[in-house]
Write a structure and sequence with these properties.
5% strand, single chain, mainly alpha
């Protein structure tokens, strides 16, 4: 049943992505966070302690509710248990959605529509995009797909393999907390501290696993595995995040491009360390190569895990 659940969840994500007409747990988690934030801020005098409580309540509640739902479904009927497990596993994965949203940037550039590309990129990145040229737009799309191959694809799949749908859902709760309160500004510096730090911890292994998978998958995508390996070693830590640099370095090395550099946030230019060497210019071919890396890395992880389970069951 584990194999059926995992393979089925991956295939459903590939085929359907996140249909908007279906309820999504992340939306419910986001509303729960928004509901709890003002109450916990008032309840605790210490904002950092309030943030710790938010993390524990949101992640713990998500894990507990999903576990209870799965148990009830299995008790009702095995088919219901499989169905609920498949659904939770499916909506925790985001390969198809990541491809679809980033593809809007590429589609606009294919039509020569820089303005449309800037708008499309603004939906998936935090940087300002209104003055970016074509190469910078492509850099933004490549960086987003590379980084989120870890956060949105490999990490939830890793936790799905490790602890089933409940653990995958708890990971998504942690990731959602970080995206909502994990900012280094006056409002969230203390309150969001626990969520941001715990998200770093939760992504430590998946980020490095993603880089390894990209190194192994690169030759399957007609890209450079050697380049990916060398850039992970050299530039994997060239990032303000302790994790994001590893998948970005693997992608940059596999593609032979340079990522990082200047980005503008709220009118302020931020110079980020560069990742990779500019052996070829950033082009739509680089974006497409990053998407191939994402899918190939996910399939490689699933394939290795399934093979391991089959061998283990044989013994």
């Amino acid at each position: 049943m584990d194999i059926v659940l995992v393979v089925g969840a991956v295939l459903l994500d590939f085929a359907l992505g996140d249909p908007r007409f279906l309820p999504h747990p992340v939306v419910a988690i986001g509303k729960f966070i928004s509901f709890l934030e003002p109450k916990l801020r008032r309840l605790f005098g210490n904002q950092r302690l309030a943030g710790v409580a938010l993390l524990v309540v949101v992640a713990g509640t998500t894990y507990g509710l999903v576990s209870a739902l799965l148990a009830l479904a299995w008790r009702f009927a095995p088919a219901a248990g499989i169905g609920v497990g498949l659904y939770i596993g499916w909506v925790c994965l985001a390969a198809r959605s990541l491809h679809g949203e980033s593809r809007k940037v590429a589609a606009a550039l294919e039509q020569g529509d820089l303005a449309g590309g800037r708008v499309a990129l603004s939906w998936i990145v935090g940087r300002e995009t209104e003055h970016l040229g074509e190469e910078e737009l492509i850099r933004g799309a490549v960086e987003t797909v590379a980084e989120n191959t870890s956060d949105g694809v490999i990490a939830p799949l890793f936790y799905l393999l490790l602890g089933g749908p409940a653990l995958a859902a708890a990971y998504k709760a942690v990731n959602t907390l970080d995206s909502m309160v994990g900012y280094k500004n006056e409002r969230y510096l203390e309150f969001g501290w626990a969520s941001a730090r715990f998200d770093d911890v939760a992504n430590w292994v998946p980020a490095r696993l993603t880089a390894l998978l990209m190194v192994l998958a690169a030759p399957l995508c007609a890209l450079s595995g050697r380049g990916a390996f060398l850039m992970v070693r050299r530039d994997g830590r060239n990032h303000s995040s302790p994790n994001s640099g590893f998948p970005e370095a693997a992608a940059a090395g596999a593609l032979g491009v340079r990522l990082g550099g200047a980005n503008t946030y709220f009118g302020k230019v931020v110079e980020k360390p560069t990742i990779g060497d500019p052996l070829v210019p950033l082009s739509l071919a680089a974006y497409r190569g990053t998407v191939r890396l994402m899918y190939a890395s996910e399939l490689l992880l699933v394939g290795v895990w399934v093979a391991g389970r089959v061998i283990a069951e044989g013994f």
